[in-house]
Amino acid sequence: MRSLFARLSPDRHSTTLDSLSAGNDDPSDSARGAQLVRHWARRQNVSVVPWLRSGSPFPPIEAALDDPNGLLAAGGDLSPGRLLAAYRQGIFPWYNEAQPILWWSPDPRTVLFVAEFRPPRSLRRVVRQRRFEIRVDTAFRSVMAGCAEPRGGQSGTWITPAVIDAYTVLHRQGHAHSVEAWRDGELAGGLYGVTIGRMFYGESMFARQTDASKVALVNLVAVLGRLGMPLIDCQQETAHLARFGARPVARRVFADWLSRLVNSPEPAEDWTAAARATADQA
After folding, report:
1. Whole-structure pTM value
2. In a designed cystine with 248, which of 108, 137, 244, 268 is the match (CB 3.0 to 4.6 A)?
3. Does 117 lie in the same domain as 178?
4. 273 and 230, same structural domain?
5. What separation in angstroms does the CA of 171 have from each of 56, 240, 258?
6. Quick check: bond before 27 cis, omega within 30?
7. Cα separation of 69 and 106, whole Å?
């Protein structure tokens, strides 16, 4: 099943993005990589994004390219500090194994307001049937591995072993969570995302059984509602997301919401307790 928080490997801009493969995110090669990228850009007469060195800040999100939409920077690393700094500003990593780390902030940005979530009637019926046992944060790494599994029509995945390691660290620090759908003792599907303050960034979801990831989404929305977290960042627009009430907003509007939510106090209740409390409400 295709992810609701869909980020496939970014191959469709291969001419521009493959040029960035000239360097890598090894600090010893960063200066050479940046020099090669600039040289390529001059020859092709195209815009090129900044190359992030260790400790260097992100450019303002308004500097992101229009084509490919939202490409902001390359290089850097996936350390917890770098990732959290990115998400606070509405920036996320997305790249394939042949490329350096690429950082994005597209315009418009697809979001789902918790109060606007509209599951189809057929899905509400599946939820009431309780086919799946919902758990929170019991198999985070396994959920990421499930999201990285090959899917039809997809040539690769951006969820590499390095990405799984990086987000697992965020999970251990309390900044990333998983909602899991289990059936007969097996992980049938689930989703994961990043949290800062009262903001939730949806990353990816998967299903090995029909409707498993959708039921996990229903329960995620219930948990977020209880925790007072009103917004899900879905990143990219899809018709599938629109069925659930997601809609695109201008990047500047998203940034305004973001600045308020990431600076709001974190919920006092933890995710496990919130999941138990909402088990009969989803």
Report:
1. 0.87
2. 108
3. yes
4. yes
5. 24, 27, 20
6. no
7. 5
